[in-house]
Amino acid sequence: MKVSVNGTIFEQKDALVSIADKAVWYDFGVYENIKVLQGKIMWPEMHTYRLFKSAEIIGLHIGEEKERILQWVRNYAEVQKLKDHIIKICVYGDADKNARATVYMFAIGLTFYPDQFYAQGVKAITYQGERNFPTAKSMDTLVNFIAFRTAKERGAFEAILIDREGNAREGSRSNLYIVEKETIITPPLEDVLEGVTRVLVLKLLEENEIPFKEERISKDRLMAADEIFITATSSNVMSVTEIDQQKIGAGAPGEATKQIIQLYRTMQKEYLGR
Amino acid sequence: MKVSVNGTIFEQKDALVSIADKAVWYDFGVYENIKVLQGKIMWPEMHTYRLFKSAEIIGLHIGEEKERILQWVRNYAEVQKLKDHIIKICVYGDADKNARATVYMFAIGLTFYPDQFYAQGVKAITYQGERNFPTAKSMDTLVNFIAFRTAKERGAFEAILIDREGNAREGSRSNLYIVEKETIITPPLEDVLEGVTRVLVLKLLEENEIPFKEERISKDRLMAADEIFITATSSNVMSVTEIDQQKIGAGAPGEATKQIIQLYRTMQKEYLGR
Question: From which domain of life does this come (chains A, B) (predicted)?
Fold first, then answer.
């Protein structure tokens, strides 16, 4: 697999950064994961929009137009003949001067999870931790890495990050939602990343007149929810039926979650034009 | 300047990491800054000790003996004929397997600050933020980078990180101390990095029977201190005489701070053998 660096395509072995580069050293970068499904780039405009938003939050000057980066994404996907992949875009800023950033793109395989994950739900753990710039998708992701690794060690699919105030914010790689008596609750945008799938799901809820609110979710409230689900670019909408070895609701995907999984699938199919 | 990678010395241009390396991506690494002064490596054992401690905290398996890494440090300093430098050691773990880590070392110039910084003290700002793994020197340092950049933009030397409970923890690149009626107070080790200079300064305080305590320091307490100073490998002991444009104490280095600056200089000279 090749890598695009500022729009030029290199062999992956040549897409390297210096260990002594201050931007790498200090994580002065932002990133995105764009899904390519059946050869179609999924919502690239939403991802590049967020890339620039993340950069703005941490004060990183990208120095390119959004449209140009979109062209690089399209060109990379075409040249690499991507079918089912995640395109990772990683933008490192210039830590010393305010010169232009470096935009890397590379593809990794898109993970397809077994049907039973969707049909039966997955297990999660809670993990005490929060990102430093929660509204930006920055390269500062050690807490996500360690939370997710801890989940895997305990046989769970995801780790739900609990902040210092004791509120559940997001998964290590996903946005979080609970269902309380048919109302969907998700943490407010001042506390979490505005996931692309989150935007799409909230739009679906609105169009289908499913009530939802953006509110902080204490750990007690999380554990007492009727249903819990998470969303992410690679896993779409997935039911969480157990947290910290305790069953959530009936311990199986609930009606609201099943409906949203279905709505999301239909929307994705429509976007794919089939 | 060359770079040591797992003990072998390469040209700096060849000391590269892949943009797609998960350990780089997720900041799954730890680091150290070792000072070389007049050709002498300063307290390398303390730094390698802490390197292993940091690695343990984030669950990174270095896969080498401490003594071997010390040999690499000594060999690198000798081959590169280092005089006044900082050797940065950066250890990236293996994010996928539990294989050995990669140990990079490279030298950067040692910054000497003007005498007046020590004689008159420096300005600092406060910055809301804290590191995710405060007791480990991990590569997850965006908050430090942004805090320090904010300080520079405001004409200050350092940014003091204030945690969510409103306590002053540490500088973006230093440990923090206040003086209250001749007693030195510094935050406890559960909240901050155990700086090598911090260890040395506390030892000096003990030897010289200067009273000190490890306690949390609220922002109000910080601003009301008689004196404030910071310590770091590159800047040693430095007085902070202004925070957020407000004078601290008399607005000049106090007697306790001046004494500690002097004690530290004497100790450093002794270590250098002159």
Answer: Bacteria
